[in-house]
């Protein structure tokens, strides 16, 4: 009978097991590095996050030691001469496809969450700071204005750098979300610029022009 108090452990994949005849410890999987990257992202440690992402990308491609290297080489030869189709030849290679697909799925989820965190946690806050500069321009001191401008600039640089990096990993879905991030960054930049350029310090997006005093009333 199963003991409900003992947790069920999944069977390790080929990439997590040691090669035949070796007593080395089990291999840390790419999924584990993605989990650490998620934890580092929550803890606001970007350097650790990027390190774990790079390690997961490397651990994605692993050898499956349960496969025969001779058959793998023979499959590549038969593929060249047209005696074997591509899908069958790929399944006979030494690479662990199960590990690759598992890490790829974990990476997609990680970078999707990262893009949402960038947009809702950084870009929208940057947009609110730019709006605050617009509407409080006449009562803010020079030091406060420069602090807001520097904060907006740093937030924009970080959002664009991390957003583009995540978008490259996600493909079309990531570039769609990255385009929304770029749009709001440009909008916030326009707010900061026209806060100094417009007489009333407010820029209207619908007219692409400075807002009149009557429109602010």
Structure explained in plain terms:
The structure is a single chain. Helix content is 66%, strand content 2%. With 217 residues, it is an all-alpha fold. The chain has a domain at 30-62 and 96-211. Strand 1 and strand 2 form a beta hairpin. Helix 1 runs antiparallel to helix 2, helix 1 packs parallel to helix 5 and helix 5 packs parallel to helix 7 (172-197). The model has no long low-confidence stretch (mean pLDDT 78). Residues 1-26 are annotated as: Disordered. Keywords: Membrane, Transmembrane, Transmembrane helix. The chain crosses the membrane at residues 111-132, 144-163, 175-196.
Element layout with pairings:
Blueprint: H1 30-42, H2 46-59, H3 69-80, H4 86-91, H5 97-135, H6 142-170, H7 172-197, E1 203-204, E2 209-210, H8 213-216
Antiparallel strand pairs: 1-2
> Nearest-angstrom radius of gyration?
26 Å
Distance between the termini: 75 Å
Number of helices: 8
Which stretches are poorly predicted, pLDDT < 50 over at least 5 residues? Answer: none
By secondary-structure content and strand pairing, the structural class works out as: mainly alpha
Number of strands: 2
Rounded mean pLDDT is 78
Question: In percent, how helical is the residue content?
Answer: 55-70%
Strand content: under 5%
Which strand order spans the largest sheet, edge to edge or round the barrel?
A: 1-2
Shape: elongated
Query: Helix and strand succession?
Result: HHHHHHHEEH
Condensed summary:
The chain crosses the membrane at residues 111-132, 144-163, 175-196. With 217 residues, this protein is mainly α.
């Amino acid at each position: 009978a199963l003991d409900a108090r003992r947790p069920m452990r999944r069977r390790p994949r080929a990439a997590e097991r040691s090669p035949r005849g070796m007593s080395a410890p089990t291999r840390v999987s790419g999924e584990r590095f993605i989990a650490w990257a998620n934890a580092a992202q929550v803890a606001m440690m970007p350097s650790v996050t990027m390190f774990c992402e790079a390690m997961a990308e490397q651990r994605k491609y692993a050898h499956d030691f349960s496969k025969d290297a001779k058959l793998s080489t023979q499959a590549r030869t038969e593929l060249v001469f047209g005696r074997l189709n591509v899908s069958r030849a790929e399944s006979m290679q030494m690479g662990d496809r199960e590990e690759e697909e598992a890490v790829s799925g974990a990476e997609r989820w990680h970078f999707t969450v990262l893009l949402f965190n960038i947009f809702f946690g950084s870009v929208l806050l940057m947009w609110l700071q730019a709006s605050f500069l617009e509407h409080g321009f006449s009562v803010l001191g020079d030091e406060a204005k420069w602090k807001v401008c520097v904060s907006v600039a740093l937030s924009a640089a970080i959002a664009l750098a991390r957003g583009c990096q995540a978008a490259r990993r996600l493909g079309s879905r990531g570039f769609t979300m990255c385009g929304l991030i770029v749009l709001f960054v440009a909008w916030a930049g326009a707010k900061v610029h026209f806060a100094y350029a417009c007489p009333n310090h407010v820029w209207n997006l619908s007219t692409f022009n400075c807002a009149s005093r009557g429109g602010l009333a």
